[in-house]
Amino acid sequence: MGSISRGRNLGPGGAAAGGAYLVPCGRAHQIGALALISITFLLTRAFDRLSYDLPSPSTRPAASLASISSAGYLSWPDRGYGSRLDLTIYVYEEQEIDGLRELIRGRDSRISPDACVKGQWGTQVKIHQLLLKSKYRTLNKEEADLFFVPSYVKCVRMMGGLNDKEINNTYVKVLSQMPYFRYSGGRNHIFVFPSGAGAHLFRSWAVFLNRSIILTPEGDRTDKRDTSAFNTWKDIIIPGNVDDGMTKFHSSSLVGPIPLSKRKYLANFLGRAQGKVGRLQLIELAKQYPDKLESPELHLSGPNKLGRTEYFNHLRNAKFCLAPRGESSWTLRFYESFFVECVPVILSDQIELPFQNVIDYTQISIKWPSTRISTELLEYLESIPDEVIEGMIARGRKVRCLWVYASESESCSAMVGILWELQKKVRLFHQSAETFWLHNGSVINRDLVEFHHWRTPLPLP
Predict the structure, then answer these.
(1) Less crowded by CB within 10 Å, the N or C end of the chain?
(2) Both 226 and 98 in a single domain?
(3) Could you write out the DSSP letters of every residue in 323-353?
(4) Per the database record, which ranges form the Exostosin GT47 domain (predicted)?
(5) Do the domain assignments include residue 447?
(6) 212 burial class (0-12, 13-18, 19+ CB within 10 angstroms)?
(7) Is pLDDT at 1 greater than 70 in this prediction?
(8) Residue 349 falls within a domain, yes or no?
(9) Which H or E run contains 148?
(10) pLDDT reported for residue 329
(11) What is the pLDDT of residues 340-365, one digit of tens each?
(12) Tens digit of pLDDT for each residue in 239-251?
């Protein structure tokens, strides 16, 4: 028997060309069809909810985040990272590349690493020194997954060791002597830029480092510059450098926290105004409510200079530590607050925070719009019960080890976190627009010269 073809044209009277007739669609059929469509829609929605609803951040299982065991050991999630650290990093020696010593010690080599290790820019020194001692360091470039380029340029510049033009020219000279940088287009090379200026300290960063891995506490700067040197795909936000005297969790700590009930102030802001709107607003607010908000005038030099101990004694005497933006979006005060155990209140809208993919910052801090710095902020903070504040402080106490620049042999440290993030950047295969390869796996340049015969200085982008 023949079947009715769905594509046939209807003839006169509704008959198909093959002689068969279609049954007319009556009102009962229409009602039935509508009912079937409604039931199908409702069932589909129900199955969608069962299959695709994801837990909100507040209900996300703890296993998906970094956690600290009762013994103090850091557990990084397997998601996207692997189950163990397994990478090798080559650290360039200052004497092997002409010009590298100048980026570390200045033009006349008079600046010592000890002079650069303190303060908010000390991460450039600490990360370098920790990698030199790391078990993940290799002395063989052939087996390296990543290459670390040491440089203390922020400190060197601040101390008069190099000017901006010299920094730029010296970086270009250094990079032209690195065949492995040319090989990958810089994709497997790591640079540290520890200040608010970020990679902009190297004026030509957009030409030479636009594919490299940049470690910086500073995120997106398009609020201040046309182009940001930070790229969320390739770069890593690192913690600021908290005073070593505060990162020791025992009796030798510079100052210890005090009970919440004995703290004199609801909140504090310890910093210079620097002509910044948010900071000026906080200083004025402190004048209106001196019993709630402390914001003393800070002297960073001269006979009335506020010492380290005095600074942290002030910081620990409030329930909330306010952290507004300054010249840039990041602020060291955010990290310092965890060590005096006050809840940080971020007043910097563009801020980026370290290890955001494994730390739920809503559980340990508050972020408030910088456009709403007023009595409204104080009223809000005043409404938070002490038991809630204690809970946030307790959770912050568990993860603050990730702000401490210590060896990866420690159970938890900033260096461990950075290594996990670097491992995610490792690629089996690197290429640049100036590298080519043949059927036998050998890498060549445009002149068909094999990689191991490349001669420096190399042409750069």
Answers:
(1) N
(2) yes
(3) EE--SSS--HHHHHHHHHT-EEEEE-TT---
(4) 87-379
(5) no
(6) buried
(7) no
(8) yes
(9) strand 146-148
(10) 86
(11) 999 999 999 989 999 988 899 999 99
(12) 999 999 898 765 5
Strands of 203-311 (E only): list them: 213-216, 236-237, 265-268, 293-294
**What's residue 298's pLDDT?**
72
> Given this model, what pLDDT does residue 81 score?
72
Strands of the 213-216 sheet, one edge to the other: 137-138, 89-91, 146-148, 189-192, 213-216, 236-237
Question: Look-up: residue for tokens 């602020």?
Answer: 331
Please tell me whether residues 378 and 337 are part of one structural domain.
yes
The reply to whether 184 and 252 lie within a common domain is no
- 166-224 pLDDT, tens digit per residue, is 999 999 999 999 999 999 999 999 999 998 888 999 999 999 999 999 999 988 766 66
Q: Which of 356, 349, 348, 366 is nearest to 271 (CA)?
A: 348
Mean predicted lDDT score pLDDT of the chain: 84
Instruction: Give the CA count within 13 Å in the CB-facing half-sphere of 424.
Output: 18
Per the structure, the count of domains in the chain is 2
Contact between 323 and 329 under an 8 Å Cβ cutoff? The reply is: no
Q: Are residues 206 and 268 in the same domain?
A: no
Q: Could you tell me the two tokens for 153?
A: 């340029």
Residue 374, in any domain of the structure: yes
Tokens of 172: 């270009």
Distance between CA 32 and CA 335 in Å, rounded?
65
Domain extent at residue 208: 86-241+426-431
Q: What CATH number is given to the structural domain containing 342? A: 3.40.50.2000
| Distance separating alpha carbons of residues 353 and 60, to the nearest angstrom | 19
117 with 237, same domain? yes
264: DSSP letter: S
| 210 and 279 part of one domain | no
Do 116 and 176 lie in a common domain? yes
User: pTM above the 0.85 mark?
Assistant: no
150 and 216 fall within a common domain: yes
